[in-house]
Design a protein that fits this description.
2 domains, 14 strands, alpha+beta, four-stranded antiparallel beta sheet, about 475 residues
Length: about 475
């Protein structure tokens, strides 16, 4: 009877283990579309044998629990690649928007914001005036062209500032999202350390990995795994974000009209975050480096061009016989020139076309002004060449960042495919495993039927009896 009881126990254990394994597979199937879910596989362990009279008797098997199919090294590689890809994607998006302000260096489309065409239009108006310097309508055309040029400088500068403000708001929003995720990760750290300090934490760890992946999209991070299965997460420069069960939020506040980001100790880490990964890294790079460089180049162009034209106009006499004055109002230095440039003249008659003392019909000074079109007056080159080089450089930068992002996205896709091959739920594999487990369950059930027959025969002293 002891042997029959042991057999019943083994069969019951087999049924229970098969049922538990079936539950694991069913859970996989139900979570196939759950973001961040990692496939779990049932783990089996042979029970200790029993030694009776020198003979070892097996005691069946037990399912020790599900094991997540997770590669932590691969997960970290994906997170690192995500940081790089999101950084360049954010930069590309921002730079593309900036490029649209200036158009293409080879564009033939007329636009009031196209500084290059406005410069060409201004010199064209001066050239037409050369043919009839006393014609009021032609002088008015010069005034209109100068107004168009001023408006183009101001509009471009204004749009650069607008884009910078937009990126500034995005940076502040991302800081808030980072803090929400680090708080969630810290809470998961505490639960995981308490429930599973020495092994995989299953779906809790799935959620933590999913949150870390989301965090990697926002900011550049480093992570260190602790002994109790917790994580320490810092920024790329080492500022703590999560230490075990505690989150260390970042803060954002205005300084000099720009949002600066501070760690939990109050240290300004804005420059450390720029280019350090994630959307925040890309946004800060364009906001704090790209746009100021473009604004400086635009200011230089407005200041140098305006100064050259003012100097040339001073050398002549206007239509009323008065000494020429400034055509453009400019600040004392180039800083802010693109936004502050304005017309200093109110009438076309103030264009000093004539050389001093030569009369209103003279165009000697106008010829000198026209020669500025082909002279080195802005940054060591002509005004048109300077602007063309500026736009071309911006286009090259956009192309370069786009190429980097494409390569990084391809690498990220490859890593994600590797991870999914290991960790994602494969419905076909799950169906095959379910079929095998069903057969195991049926086999264990058959053992019960056989044991019932044997037990009935034993109780009836060997007389075969039907078992219902």
């Amino acid at each position: 009877m002891a042997t029959l009881n042991s057999a019943f126990s083994i069969a019951a254990g087999a049924l229970q283990a098969a049922q538990s394994a079936i539950n694991v597979i069913a859970n996989n199937v139900s979570n196939a579309n759950t973001p961040g879910y990692t496939t779990e596989l049932p783990q089996w362990q042979e029970n200790d044998t029993v030694n009776i009279a020198g003979i070892c008797y097996g005691q069946g098997a037990t399912m020790t629990g599900p094991s997540s199919q997770r590669d932590l090294v691969l997960e970290q590689r994906i997170q690192q690649q995500t940081q790089l890809q999101q950084d360049t994607e954010a930069r590309y998006t921002a730079l593309s928007q900036l490029q649209s302000i200036f158009g293409s260096a080879t564009s033939t489309t007329s636009s009031s914001l196209d500084i290059g065409q406005s410069i060409t239009g201004f010199f064209s108006a001066l050239s037409q005036l050369q043919g009839s310097p006393s014609d009021p309508s032609l002088r008015q055309s010069v005034l209109t062209a100068a107004t168009t040029l001023v408006n183009a400088f101001q509009a471009a500068s204004s749009q650069l500032s607008s884009q910078q403000n937009s990126l500034d708001h995005q940076a502040a929003t991302i800081v808030s999202q980072v803090n929400s995720l680090t708080q969630a990760i810290a809470q998961l750290n505490g639960k995981i350390s308490e429930m599973s300090p020495n092994g995989d934490a299953g779906q809790l760890e799935d959620q933590r990995q999913h949150d870390i992946q989301q965090l990697s999209q926002l900011i550049g991070i480093h992570q260190i795994r602790n002994e109790d299965n917790g994580l320490t997460i810092t920024t790329s420069s080492g500022a703590p974000l999560v230490v075990l069960g505690q989150a260390f939020p970042l803060s954002a506040s205005l300084s000099g009209g720009i949002t600066h980001i501070y760690d939990n100790q109050g240290s300004d880490i804005t420059s450390d975050l720029a280019g350090a990964g994630g959307q925040l890294g890309g946004i800060l790079t364009v906001r704090d480096q790209g746009i100021p460089q473009m604004q400086s180049a635009l200011d230089t162009m407005a200041y140098d061009f305006g100064t050259a034209l003012n100097t040339a106009n001073h050398a002549g006499t206007d239509a009323n016989g008065n000494p020429g004055g400034d055509i453009f109002n400019l600040p004392a230095t180039s800083a802010g020139a693109a936004s502050q440039i304005s017309l200093a003249i109110t009438s076309g008659s103030q264009i000093a076309a004539a050389a001093s003392g030569n009369g209103a019909s003279d165009t000697s000074n106008l010829v000198s002004m026209l020669q500025l079109q082909n002279q080195v007056i802005v940054g060591g080159v002509t005004a048109s060449s300077y602007y063309s080089s500026f736009v071309s450089s911006l286009g090259s930068l956009v192309s370069q960042v786009s190429t980097e992002n494409t390569a990084q996205q391809a690498s990220l896709t490859q890593l994600t495919t590797q991870r999914d091959a290991l960790s994602a739920v494969n419905q076909n594999e799950q169906a095959a495993m379910l079929e095998n487990l069903q057969q195991s369950y049926q086999a264990a059930s058959k053992v019960f039927t056989i044991l019932d027959t044997v037990m009935a025969s034993a109780l009836n002293l060997g007389i075969e009896a039907a078992v219902s």
